Amino acid sequence: GHGIDFSATSGGSGGNSEILRDYEEGTFTATMNSSGGNASFNSGGSATGLYVKIGSMVHVQIYFSGANIASAGSGVAVIGGLPFTSNSTLYYTLAITHTTMTVSTVQNGYVQYGNTIFYPIVQNGTGGSALNVGNPRYMMIGGSYPTAF
């Protein structure tokens, strides 16, 4: 056969490859808020995210579906609750496939280094966008970032 040989390992521990032993998947709760606080939601202020972690790389998918934003609060949209703390030295980007949760168009954003927070960034800009009051509101986010090495 031409299959992949998973029998080779480091340290002579037998059976499973190092990569497969360092694999984890699960769910987490992502929370939407405003950087200045005081945002309020009648519903949908949190979402169940999915993650796969291979080695130090974390792959996430988040979908806020049908949120009812009662008050935007102050500041810009911020998403908390990422499943692992980001590497402490660099920023990393995640993509936003569509959103009606922010006033301005946002297509990506950054995971704050050394934290579990994601900030959506205004298209062609460097700053964030305020939350958009109303119902229903949506946002889909996906991408990868490394944990502390």
Describe the structure.
The chain is an all-beta fold and 149 residues long. Helices cover 3% and strands 52% of the residues. An eight-stranded antiparallel beta barrel has the order 1-3-4-9-6-7-8-5. The protein is globular, with a radius of gyration of 18 Å.
Distance between the termini: 36 Å
Q: Which spans have pLDDT < 50 for at least 5 consecutive residues?
A: 7-14
Classify the helix fraction into a percent range: under 10%
Counted beta strands: 9
The percentage of residues in β strands lies in over 45%
Average of per-residue pLDDT values: 90
Overall, the morphology is globular
Cα-based radius of gyration, to the nearest Å: 18 Å
Strand order of the largest sheet: 1-3-4-9-6-7-8-5
Structural class, please?
Answer: mainly beta
Sheet with most strands: 8 strands, antiparallel, barrel
- How many H/I helices? 1
SSE order, one letter for each helix or strand? HEEEEEEEEE
